[in-house]
Amino acid sequence: MNVVVVGCGRVGAHIATALDQRGEHVTVVDRIPQSFSRLHSDFGGLAIRGTGIDEDVLKSAGIEQADAFLAVTDWDNTNLMAAQVAKVVFNVDFVAARVYDPVRAEIFANMDIVTISPTVTITNLLLDALESSLPGLMAAR
Questions:
Q1: Cα–Cα distance between 141 and 23 in angstroms, integer?
Q2: Which residues neighbour 72 within 8 Å (Cβ) at sequence distance 6 or greater?
């Protein structure tokens, strides 16, 4: 599987490394060269400096042969725009974006882009943890 990952922060580097270790062909795009130092020392994929919304950068990353595209920068607008370019311009089958704003995440989910909102995910996990602890907390009162 050919995967293009835009964003080499903690999440992007972790995903790229995990996919590389599984034997997938991975290309990571980031505008800050120092970000690539987060990749595991035996990372065998490609690292390309550039912006994930630039079509020429994406072409050099192999997006035209990509089976999957993941946009995981710290910027919702960048992730959403890059995901749209991957989906609409390059017709990538699987496109996903990290989106902090739950309202934006819902809008883009309706555009056939898998959206993951850490805000919603963490909120749900914390509420679940609280609810599962409530009986014990109530008994302790």
A1: 53
A2: 5, 6, 7, 9, 11, 12, 15, 79, 97, 98
Question: For residues 133 and 131, what is the distance between their CA atoms, to the nearest angstrom?
Answer: 5
- Measured CA to CA, the distance from residue 122 to residue 117 in angstroms comes to 9
Q: What are phi and psi of 11, to 5 degrees?
A: -70, -50
pLDDT confidence of 134, banded at 50, 70, 90? confident
- Which of 77, 74, 82 has its CA nearest to residue 113? 82
The domain defined by 2-140 folds into: Rossmann fold (3.40.50)
pTM of the model: 0.89
Q: How far is CA 126 from CA 53, 56, 104, 117, in A?
A: 34, 41, 22, 14
CA distance 137 to 17: 40
- 9 burial class (0-12, 13-18, 19+ CB within 10 angstroms)? middle
